[in-house]
What we know:
- This protein is mainly α.
- The chain is 71% helix and 2% strand.
- It contains 16 helices and 2 strands.
Amino acid sequence: xxxxxxxKLIEAAKAGDIQEVxxxxxxxxxDFDSALAVAAFLGHIDIVELMLEKGADNLKIILxxxxxxxxxxxxxxxxxRLFTQKGxxxxxVMFETLAPVDMEEITYELLNYEIDGDITPLAMKxxxxxxxxxxxxxxxxxxxxxxxxxxxxxxxxxxxxDMDPALREEVLAMVKDSxxxxxxxxxxxxxxxxxxxxxNIVKYAVENGVDVNSxxxxxxxxxGFREIISYLETKLKG
Length: 238
């Protein structure tokens, strides 16, 4: 039984034969998504472009498979760019599927695009692995930015000045959380840093305004990493 037009299309896409792909399209092949998946996974960029032009649209699932595969990282970048040009929005799941061999470089590429959803879990994952530069880029490109925050914090600190120290600490933490999305993220990554012995992450969080309090010291002591305990105790005394 002769091959159907769709079967010819997929085989041609697998082989990277653009002329045979065009012949299959001439014969009324319509399985653009399957052809795109094969071509993208194998890095046949010209066929990827053609299938996108034809209307292939199962982009998220295909990109996840590409990112987890062994394709050359430069071709992965090309495919990311082509897919985002067609309207695909990057989400945090895609970062979790990256092949270890090119994780850092592809992470930087993905961070250049709009990210759908809450970035906190992604920041926490970076913190767990000590990936400070990824955290900085994530917050710089996708975090909360508000020039009024400094003024709001100053006012809150002034109003809380006469409170009991423990209560003052709690109130200021709540205020920071409510007016600055990044404060919540920084607080969470500091906890991850403490739990995973990532002093660089802990320092970054503290330097960017996260309060060191008795609860944080307790968490550090529970995890038992002496260098982190020493650093946080110094900051608490200061």
